[in-house]
Amino acid sequence: MKRLTWVLAAALMLGACATSSPAEVARAPSATGAVSEEEFKAMHTLRTDAAPERRGQPVELSDGSKAYLSLPPDAKGPLPAIIVIHEWWGLNEHVQAWADRLAAEGYAALAVDLYHGKVGTNPDEALALVKAVDGDQATKTLLAAHAFLKGDPRIQAVRTGSIGWCFGGGWSLRTAMAIPELSAAVIYYGHPVTDPQQLSTIKAQVLGIFGTKDKSIPPETVQAFEKALEEAGVRSRIVEYDADHAFANPSGGRYDERSAASAWAETSAFLARTLKR
Questions:
Q1: Pair 34, 218: CB distance under 8 Å
Q2: Which residues have CB under 8 Å from 53's CB, separation 6+?
Q3: How far is CA 113 from the centre of its chain?
């Protein structure tokens, strides 16, 4: 396992899930990580930037939940496929744009909705939505998403992965814990599990992306995560940027374009290596 710390010259969101045993990967996420709720809410603002035009379509999964599917232009299965898990804001147009971005790189991207149609527009609403998530139902949705990617005749995925930011980052990790078939999991500043035994169910390769200025997931927690992955025998890469929480969200107030671009380059190379081989 390699660990890379990026210290960018100029100072140019929550995936916090409660620690659980392998049989309890669906437990509800912690709302704040290492900081208070008020401090965590202060880390999040939404700008008024319009999302790019969407190119995908809504679909319904076997558990009854809705999702957003984006496919590569003129592509035919089998395709490498990715479960896309939203930030604490919910499945808004900006997350759908992330799915389109992945589809443009050749993946079938399925953005799930763990809030059942609700979207937060301010930190109070988002925190309430996080707290209302039913862990068992969220895991059923993620399992249904994986089954959709495997079974849909347009996709017929042979290799699958997951990606998530903040709240979704934590659930991306738990998707890898719950689905041994997964080949790759990308975790953008999602609060990690640091117990090797709990991580031992993971067969996927893991890419963890964090900011050294993120007070909700301090560097010592990232280091503990890295050590736990190594002890669990999970192949992984941890990358840290001189950036804050939610630095990769272009619709957020803490967006850091330089760090986000570098993180995307890491993510793109990692997914190509693990899902397109």
A1: yes
A2: none
A3: 12
